[in-house]
Every structure is written in C-alpha cells, then in structure tokens.
Amino acid sequence: MARYTGSSCRICRRQSAKLFLKGQRCYTEKCGFDKRSYAPGQHGKGQRIKLSNYGMQLREKQKVKKIYGILERQFRKYFQTASRSKGITGSKLLELLERRLDNVIFRSSFVSSRPEARQMVMHGHVLVNDKKVDIPSYSVKTGDIVVIKPKEKTIKRVKESAEKLKDRPCPSWIEVDKVGLRTKITRLPERNDMAADIKEQLIVELYSK
Fold it and tell me: What is the pLDDT of residues 55-91, one digit of tens each?
C-alpha cells in the first residue's frame, strides 16, 4: 500500500488548514502550521495563487482524503456507494467516512490521531461486539459496542492518551466510557456532527464531471 512518509505539517500548510495529522503535537505550541501557516516551498510565503473551480474541487478532495488517511481508489468507492444511497450524496460520503472503525477510535479520544487509531486496529487491539476486528475501514452501525482489548500495555497507553485529551469533546452520535474504554454507537452520524470546514459539494461536483 502506498504511504506518505513526508512531513505532516507540510500537508496542512499546502491545504491552508489545520488537519490535526500529528496527534497531540497539533494541540501544542509546537504545531508547525501555527508557526508557519503559509504554503511550503522556497516562495511559499509570497505566493498568491488564485485557484480555478477545478483546483478548488481537487484541493477539497485531497484535504478530505488526508484527514481520513485513505487513497484515491478507496475514496472513489466511498463516493460511488454514497451516490447510490438515498439522501444527499455529499453528506452520505462524510457519513461513510465517519463510520470507519479507526475514526470511531479517534473520535472517542482514545488516541490522539487517526494514524495511531489505524495502527491500534490493525494490531488487533480493538473489539467490536466482543469480536476482534483488525480492519480500519470496518463500518460501524447503530448499536455496535467498540472496546479496547484488555491488554495491560495497551490499556495504559490509551488511558494516558485519554487523560491528555479529556477536554476534547466527543460527537453526540457515540456514547463514550473513558474509564472502561468503551464506545457505543447510539445513532449514525449526521452532517452537523462533522467538521464544518469541509465543503463536500465541491467533491460531488468534481466526481460528477
């Protein structure tokens, strides 16, 4: 699988938005985007680029892909599924992305970033309805119960992370027990539960050409 190994802060600077890709560091004064919010590169500070409609659509798609850590082929499949579903395509697309198991772990504040959540799932530290699930893209549904596997080393690491992130709010579509490291999916996510700065209509327009 292709994997980006460059600077995460460089991605945020290119997108002109803070994407919280480096976990806890993004919440501190060490955040690279806060220090240098202009575009990367030798002439980044003085760049004034006026994007075309296509450029804005493409950049919005790239931003969402980076936020959720998925590649083009998988992202296109999510869009195709969303377009076949009832309702607004853009909102359905974001709903499918939010329902990913690695995103649920991140949203529950058990870890500080989605890459860390993905690693935890792939290493078999997560149970869904008492069954081990090691697929980060696993789609949760209403009534599912997600639990961190009771291993001493894992529990200690997650509890330390949860303590650092105790002030980060959890979305209303999940019910989180930070003591028992348990999350219940009470309902499916809606558009107002997700990031307001994502312009999903631009992505729909891009794929509709």
Answer: 889 989 988 998 898 999 999 999 999 999 998 999 9
* 38 DSSP β-pair partners: none
Per residue in 19-29, pLDDT (tens digit) is 666 555 555 66
> Which of helix, strand or coil describes residue 139?
strand
Asked if 8-97+196-207 and 100-188 have one fold, the answer is no
**All structural domains of the chain with their residue ranges:** 8-97+196-207, 100-188
CATH architecture of 8-97+196-207: Orthogonal Bundle (1.10)
How many of the other CB atoms lie within 10 Å of CB of 182? Answer: 16
Q: What is the pLDDT of residues 140-175, one digit of tens each?
A: 999 999 999 888 767 787 877 777 777 778 899 999
CA distance 15 to 59: 7
User: How many other C-beta atoms lie within 10 A of the C-beta of residue 43?
Assistant: 9
CA gap 29, 26 in Å, rounded:
8
CATH number of 100-188, picked from 3.10.290.10, 1.10.3210.10, 3.30.450.20, 3.50.50.60: 3.10.290.10
Residue pair 93/200 in contact (Cβ under 8 Å)? The answer is yes
CA distances from residue 169 to 50, 62, 107, 178 in whole angstroms, order as listed: 35, 26, 9, 12
CA dist list (Å): 62 to 11, 17, 34, 95, 200 = 10, 12, 21, 17, 11
